[in-house]
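protien #1 (seq + structre)
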Amino acid sequence: MNNKVGLAIRELHRTENALARRLLQISDRHKTDHEVFHLGRDLARWSQQHVRELARAGRDDLDLDTEPAEDHNILAALPEKGSELIGRHHDPALLLLRDLREIHRAAAGVSLGWEVLAQTAQALPDRELLDTAERCHPQTLRQMRWANAKLEESAAQIMVTG
């Protein structure tokens, strides 16, 4: 595997991990919204599986962790808690909109990573890498579409109600 392909796999591994953690954080934060809680966890499991598959794809050269990063990192939560305490994000409904936008942006970035990997795998040709991209990329697109649909469903009501 050449260095550029390795870098692409490593970056996608990192961003899938970040997306999984973010989905779990949002799920925990919005426990009272059952759709966000349960679907957020299901969508996070997809990214966690993608992390495992990317680690397998780069196993010979990259030494990537096969297990997704832990979702409850106290140090990562401190800046967010601090901003909540000083009142920047005091409205849970507005926080949900912000969180959905962040999920959408993160999933869009991951989707682009899968696209790069799929195009690279076709050019090499690397059937195993292409199969991985073809298996995982559609799930990332669904993660992005869910965040967009949930935002569309919620935005007007959240923004016009007091």
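ok now protien #2
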Amino acid sequence: MNDQLRAKIGAVAGKLVQEAMTTGLTWEEIVAAFGLAAKATAQAAASAGDAPADECVARARSCLEDAFAQDVHVVIADGGAPSGDAEADENPLLATARRRHMSRLH
């Protein structure tokens, strides 16, 4: 994969993650949504005549596995002024992880 394509894919992934973080879903639920989106995209490609559905889904699964093999660097930035609600002001993915960690401690 060339650098320009890698940059485009990274930009799309970053936008998707930012948008998903606003949904209130846990990070595991967001990952499941991305998996469903990948499968739906593959089925749409099959409907458009790219290849049979089972082949498109298999290629999508392979693309996901290849993507997991890539290095990823995440930077969490403060997105704005606090609203006064501490939990709402946190990064939703970090808040989910923190809640789960705390529930294991109690």
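The radius of gyration is 17 Å.
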